[in-house]
Amino acid sequence: MAADRLVEGDAMTRKLCPYLALALLPAVAAIAFACGGDGEGDGGGQATAEPTATAQAGGGESDVEDALRTLGQTKPEDVDYFLGHVTDNFLANVVGLTRQECRERAQECVGAGGKVEDFRNTEVKGDRATTEAAFIFETDRQEFEAHLVRENGAWKLEDLRAVPKEIPAGVQTVRLDLNEFSFAFDKDRVKGGDFAFEVHNVGGQRHEVRMAKIPADLDLAVAVQSVSQPAGVEGIAYQGPFAPGDAGSVVFDQPLAPGRYALLCFLPDKGDPEKTAHAEKGMYADFTVE
Q1: Pair (186, 97) in one structural domain
Q2: Which of 133, 201, 260, 279 has the most neighbouring CB atoms within 10 Å?
Q3: Rounded to the nearest 5°, which phi and psi values hold at 219?
Q4: 120, 135, 162 — which closes off a domain?
Q5: 210-231 confidence digits (pLDDT tens)
């Protein structure tokens, strides 16, 4: 998991591929809730907080929110429960691990547990539901739009999408295209540091935007392949995942300080049996703020 070594302190990445730990498996497993669909493992785990009967079978908005709260609390020892409460679509498209891989690598796949709170715009239509919420792991907080389906009386997580952030008026917008396996943007437009990325996934796979401040002399090509944590790397921002065709933004609280920055995507290559991280296939870029 090169991403885990490159961006220090990125608990969101580690949990989210298992929310997005399944954003260091992805990043390389570190985005994710992870895995479910055929019912395998339903009821077989020792969940940290077993859902109430209402949350399992009910069709109301509160039942959907309760199901996500409970799923967010799962830990590696709860992998069977976890696998029983996410769909195959989520496992394949968000996590990038098979059920067996998730079971064998539960620490990365499920993560240490966290909170899901501050629900907004929850909507239920039959056996499908959507909601926006804050996913909190350690000190990391990320806003996601969650999609769920009800199967065999239980709400299961099917997809996670980044909630777009509005770009403030007066802030320069820089288009950032995500593709297999590259970041494309105009480096001349980011030199001043007062900008926001307008993100477009123009590729055929899901991608994410991880940003770090890096030493001026860091060999980025070597760093993404490294088995050790490079010194002087500071995580700055994360946004994703972006499905093919999705658009969004990366907005900073204040202009970037002078220095060198890196963009990285550590989601796994779906077409690669080894699930190699996109960054290890060249999906990284750097720029300098003057």
Answers
A1: no
A2: 279
A3: -85, 100
A4: 162
A5: 999 999 999 999 998 887 778 8
